[in-house]
Amino acid sequence: MSEDEHAKRGIDLERPNAARVYDYMIGGKLNYAVDRVFADQIVGVLPNAKHMAMTNRAWLRRAARFGAEQGIRQFLDIGSGMPTVGHVHEVVQAVDPASQVVYVDNEPIAVAHSEIVLEDNDNAAMVQADAEYPDDVLEHPTTEAMIDFSEPVMVIMAAFVHFIPDSRDPAGLIARYADQLVPGSYLALSSGTWEGQGEETQRSVSLYGKSGTPLTLRSPDELSALVKGFEILPPGIVFTPEWRPDEPLEDPPERSGGLALVARKL
């Protein structure tokens, strides 16, 4: 892709992008040198970083499958990132091929490649929007065409809210999406945390701050405060590998560096 094409798509190659860094961490190929250099710096101070990304991705698949097993047939994935094997639509459409999935991201590469991946899937689509402006997401023609908010929906925010500092009111942001949901809808949320972490986490957070995408890691109580109006389902707010694992855990759960929850709207 030429420099003009990068500029036209709004791709900034001067700074790493969180979605592309995450893609690199989980073994994807939709990233650039600037992202790989930054990711390798993170791994240098936080050797667990790739493990953290992979365990979060595994939790996302379990959470999506859980929603489908509860009868949810509409999914809104906020900050969805790059399309990879085992993405939400593959998981939920394995339960019911008619399940509708709308992905939302503002990263041009994520959007472009998602559109290619989803080209032949009539029940999944990508919306390019800044999820911090819910009206841009909820009133987007694609969202309105695919999601019927008079029926239950699962909203997914995987590794999203830790990019929203308290000064930008993450609770209010979540509430705006929740206002659109009928009772019986679900929210699946994961976030980085300080719980059980060492000094290497502080060093990695400092690196993210310098990259222009600062992290705000949160405790279970802080995450609970973000989801008022929802009932947090068992097993509660736990490290990502502890949330309804498919197999016995082999590693200490705190190695994941992330907390997760699934909650149902009351």
Mean of pLDDT: 91
Q: Write down how many β-strands occur, each being a DSSP E stretch of 2 or more residues.
A: 8
Total number of helical segments? 11
Beta-strand proportion: 15-25%
Q: Sheet with the most strands? A: 8 strands, mixed
Helix content: 40-55%
Shape: globular
SSE order in H/E notation? HHHHEHEHEHHEHEHHEEE
Contiguous low-pLDDT stretches (5 residues minimum) are 1-9
Helices and strands: which structural class? alpha/beta
What is the rounded distance between the termini? Answer: 48 Å
How would you describe this protein?
There is one protein chain. By secondary structure, this protein is α/β, with parallel strands linked by helices. About 40% of the residues lie in helices and about 15% in strands. It has eleven helices and eight strands. Strands 1, 2, 3, 4, 5, 6, 7 and 8 form an eight-stranded mixed beta sheet that branches. Helix 9 (about 170-180) links the parallel strand 4 (about 155) and strand 5 (about 185-190). Helix 3 (about 35-45) runs antiparallel to helix 10 and helix 4 (about 50-70) packs parallel to helix 5. The longest helix is centred in the N-terminal third of the chain and has 21 residues, at about 50-70. It is globular.
